[in-house]
Every structure is written in C-alpha cells, then in structure tokens.
Specification:
mainly alpha, 4 helices, 80% helix
C-alpha cells in the first residue's frame, strides 16, 4: 500500500513538472484538445491524491477510537474481536487507496 501511495504522489509530481509542455498546446487552434485532455487527467490525478488523504484521515480516526469489546466475554474472544476490527479497518484503507484511481476516472468520465 505504501508503494501505491508513493507512486500516486510521484505521478502528481510528474504531472506538475511536465505541465508546461501540454499546456503550451493551447496556443494553437488545432492542438487545443491535447491541453484539454491534459487538464482533465491532471484534475483526476489530483483528486486521487485527495481521496488517498481523506482515506488516511478516516482510518486514523477509526484507529484512534477505542475498540468495541464485550467485557463479559472471555479474554480470547476479546482479543479476536479487537484483531478483527483492526484488520477490517486496514482492509478498508487499502481498498480505498487501491480503488481511488478507478473511482475518480468513473466520476470524471475518463
């Protein structure tokens, strides 16, 4: 997951660094479509980063809240309940990070 997050933010950095090249296509009438498609894809990449940040913030809030454990249950059941809740929260975070590109592409119609 860390590799996916670093990869997405590296993609944002590359889009920003290379932005002058596709934006220069707005100067000519026949090549304006290249600039428009670049702006759409740049917005999509930036929104992917926003979704990843939002997912991390939500996960940190879930992780900081105390787990719901039945105090009347056996110790083994309490531990498994805690581990299950933690694994579920981690799977939600990983799933959100991994599918952020697909969700944003669908939202923007790309």
């Amino acid at each position: 997951m860390i590799l996916s997050v670093y990869g997405r933010f590296f993609k944002i950095y590359l889009y920003t660094a290379l932005a002058p090249i596709p934006l220069s296509t707005f100067a000519g009438e026949p090549s304006q479509q290249v600039g428009r498609s670049f702006l759409k894809s740049f917005c999509a990449v930036c929104l992917e980063g926003a979704v990843i940040i939002l997912a991390c913030v939500i996960f940190s809030q879930f992780a900081s809240s105390p787990p719901v454990v039945d105090v009347n249950a056996q110790a083994v059941n309490q531990v498994w309940s805690y581990v299950g809740e933690l694994v579920f929260n981690m799977l939600v975070l990983v799933g959100t990070v991994k599918m952020s590109d697909r969700v944003i592409r669908e939202m923007m119609g790309l």
